[in-house]
């Protein structure tokens, strides 16, 4: 009771909500429906608020779940019994755009789409994009080291972070609004918080790198007959199209079901193929970019690497390709007890790994249908599978993660470990690595109040 009193003495609604003031929206992330409503939600406006709130919670040993836009797919932001939530939703200001340094400085709770728009309004470009752009927050993106649709060209979210303000569990504020491209003055501490899923500190402000806005975009949907051809297409595209910005692969069962479940999705082909690839490039040369793109595709069709290709002739054509690819939302809504995977696999092992997964699921769970698609240009593919029960879902996770480890893969290429994948971390990380992670956690958060039970 004394913590409640101490918090209420310093913060009033809407900065802090208790019991009936707390709505259901804080109960879970995107994958866990309505699991556990926290008894309190802290809603800071400033880094100083976050620091004061954490000081009080840390002294009282109150555990906290950090909440961004709640679009996470691994349960990291879903409260556990007894945890209070700290939501960044009111920290949503664009602070500065620096046209000389090519950076934007924002509060961590700003939705990704608003950061993209602010950059665009300034004639610049934020090279981070994902399906949840309207709801996810930039702080959540950095805390999960998000991937998305353009990693092949610009790298993961980590590559875009220049500086950061973060708050440790005891309220200590670490301020480094670095804009320098080169800065080797000691440890690069921001890296500790990128991808650590809120377990080491709370990110409150971020300085992000921006790029000149591309002037052209070329898109095609390609039909191919084998994974060998898909990989040859990837290699050729990387060599001949330095501006390649997306390489998304869909297996035929995913492609077909999305055409059916996504309203207005149009199939650009009349024939069926073994694999479908969305290939995109962005450039700065309106006179030649389209020509280069077409040349590449026509050469590869001549060499019978690409069997068929539909070129986007308009923005609406390109949007149609992405509607099919982004049909995962509609597809998931049709599935019961869906198991979601975001697996990372070295490109050369993808075909063997997927075949192994398909054979194993067929043998162990013949009634489970799994759909395969993903950012294959980054060695990352997704599986979504409807299951009959929570127990069967666990069995599917267990089987797939074991196979992932066998092929030198990562159990999570982009969504993070959260609280869903902790028991499988050993398939992707060695004992000594996990031990060092635990040492870091104890050093930065000795009372274990921040996101306990996430990652390990
Ligand atoms: C339709 C859809 C498409 C998606 N596509 C992609 C994709 O292409 N690539 C991809 O990587 N992900 C994707 N995701 C997953 C999700 O959008 C990302 O993981 C995103 O980065 C999470 O951001 P969020 O603000 O919603 O974070 P939340 O879900 O609120 O939190 C995620 C984790 O980060 C922690 N956290 C949040 N904010 C902070 C902060 N300020 N400081 C410290 N810790 C924090 C939380 O505690 C939690 O552990 C998709 C999700 C959906 C629903």
Report on this model:
- The chain is α+β, with helices and mostly antiparallel strands and 456 residues long.
- The chain has four domains: 86 residues, Uridine Diphospho-n-acetylenolpyruvylglucosamine Reductase, domain 2 (2-Layer Sandwich); 119 residues, Uridine Diphospho-n-acetylenolpyruvylglucosamine Reductase, domain 3, CATH 3.30.465.10; 113 residues, 2-Layer Sandwich (Alpha-Beta Plaits), CATH 3.30.70.2190; 103 residues, Alpha-Beta Plaits, CATH 3.30.70.
- It contains 14 helices and 18 strands.
- The strands form four sheets. Strands 15-12-14-13-17-18-16 form a seven-stranded antiparallel beta sheet, sandwiched between helices. A five-stranded antiparallel beta sheet has the order 5-6-10-8-9. A four-stranded mixed beta sheet has the order 1-2-4-3, covered by helices on one side.
- A hairpin with a 5-residue loop joins strand 8 and strand 9.
- Helix 12 packs antiparallel against helix 13.
- The two termini are 30 Å apart.
- The model has no long low-confidence stretch (mean pLDDT 96).
- The structure holds flavin-adenine dinucleotide.
- Flavin-adenine dinucleotide (FAD) binds next to strand 3, helix 4 and strand 10.
